[in-house]
Amino acid sequence: MEAIVLAGGKGTRLGKKTQDIPKPMLPIGGRPFLARLMDYWIGQGVRHFVLAVGYRHSVVHDYFGDRYESASLEYSFETALLGTGGGLLLAQEKLKSQDAFLVLNGDTFFEVALQDMRRYHQAKQAIATLALATVTDAARYEKIEIAADGRILAFMPRGIGKSAAQINGGVYLLNRGWHIGLGHSAGEPASLEQELFPALLKSGRPVYGFAAGARFLDIGTPEDFKKAAEFFNSGKQ
Length: 237
Fold this sequence. Notes:
The protein has helices at residues 33-43, 57-64, 83-91, 114-123, 192-202, 222-225, 228-234; strands at residues 2-7, 27-28, 31-32, 48-53, 67-68, 71-77, 101-105, 108-110, 128-135, 144-146, 152-155, 165-174, 207-211, 216-218. By secondary structure, it is an alpha/beta fold. The protein has one domain (2-234): Spore Coat Polysaccharide Biosynthesis Protein SpsA, Chain A (Alpha-Beta Complex), CATH 3.90.550.
């Protein structure tokens, strides 16, 4: 299994913490968050990562090189900010196989059982499957509207209510060719969440949500970053 990690953003909400280091490389318990992320997914069977990097990319490359544990690493370098969608389209050109591949947000940790997600993806004959996390306060997240059979119907705007909800957890299984016909090319800025996924829904192709029921951590804000050490200690990561 191959995985693309979207790790090219600046992480401006974390202020001075990311002045000299990209957000996924912030240390938690003495180890970069990105190392902890890859540890988990290597344990799930990922053997090749493409790291989509931009801001302070040399920090990532210098630390990991071309191999980490049992996985090979390649880098997709963004010379300008491309957003999550643009970064993904550029990075997927470095994938080695034509099989479905994982996409992982570089600032979230979601303990999805990969084999279960793959079986679900195949059973639904989906072109894209998004792992859904359940949070108690979904105000700053993108809520997902799904049908009874798990098909995604809509992506709801952020900031609607503080109730518990299923959200986009930042773990995706995509078939090769998922992006064809969506009107975006590699190297062009685009948002995965606000442009490409909504366009995929509009195309009528099968996009499903997988309710993972797993632990979820987002390090994108100072408040949530403070919770990271306890999260990993409690999970023995």
